């Protein structure tokens, strides 16, 4: 069994993404790791080269600044990396995600177990989504708790939309099982100034300049003061601990039961229903979980 890793990163240094840690976290699992680096202006390519691991294969690609349709640039560049994979299983990681080393054995075991089960098209990983800082994580509805990050090498499977997940080429959800892997998602834990730059850059993949300006109107500290979070008391991946130790910002939230804002109202109601009954309502899953 051969395992390929794949990712893409553009201008990761200026966006504050921990992409070097992301790549390093996946290396122990993989026999090869394809890193697509679209044209960057901040030394991202040099940073990837500096990791200096023989498993890494760098793909340099062009970036279309005019592509502003539903984040399709993200899935396009994800698929460029996926097409270069030669493994039986292909493990995807985004530049702001880091695999916790404590779950590496479980992921490998899951791939070995399902290797001869062609009905299993992919595997899920669990998530911790950090919000506001490295010591607070999101606990509200609207944050996916699991997502497909391992797929079979199959020309009929590809990244879709804004690259959150994978589907077949005809749009069918993948049949998946759990991998036991755990990703830490740090894209919403960046320094507030860096988070503002990131939002401006990503918003341009969906919207025109006038809309971007409206979307990027944020509080002085960038993060909303009423986001539902809990203190993080676990351990960060080893490759992140130096970055976490150097962080000099914190986040606190009022954590109201109902935030009385239209965009959050039904998510808050769903969270209350789950807390009271254990029943999940309105949860969208980008896959078909099989036993």
Instruction: Supply the CATH architecture.
Output: Alpha-Beta Complex
- Strand tally: 13
Order of helices and strands: EHHEHEHEEHEEEEEEHHEHHE
Major β-sheet profile: 11 strands, mixed
- Proportion of residues in β-strands: 25-35%
Average pLDDT over all residues: 92
Shape: globular
What percentage of residues falls in helices of 4 or more residues?
A: 25-40%
Helix and strand content put the structural class at alpha/beta
Number of self-contained structural domains: 1
Distance between the amino and carboxyl termini: 23 Å
CATH topology: Spore Coat Polysaccharide Biosynthesis Protein SpsA, Chain A
Number of helices: 9
Low-confidence stretches: none
Counting copies of identical and different chains, the oligomeric state is single chain
**What is the CATH top level name?**
Alpha Beta
Give your account of this protein's structure:
There is one protein chain. The protein is of the alpha/beta class and 291 residues long. The chain has one domain (1-291): Spore Coat Polysaccharide Biosynthesis Protein SpsA, Chain A. It is 29% helix and 25% strand. It has nine helices and 13 strands. It has helices at residues 12-15, 19-26, 44-51, 72-82, 104-114, 192-203, 209-215, 241-246, 262-277; strands at 3-8, 32-38, 56-61, 89-92, 97-99, 122-133, 136-138, 146-152, 157-159, 166-168, 175-188, 229-231, 288-289. Strands 1, 2, 3, 4, 5, 6, 7, 8, 11, 12 and 13 form an eleven-stranded mixed β-sheet that branches. Strands 9-10 form a two-stranded antiparallel ribbon. β2, α3 and β3 (56-61) form a beta-alpha-beta unit. The radius of gyration is 19 Å and the shape is globular. The two termini are 23 Å apart. The model has no long low-confidence stretch (mean pLDDT 92).
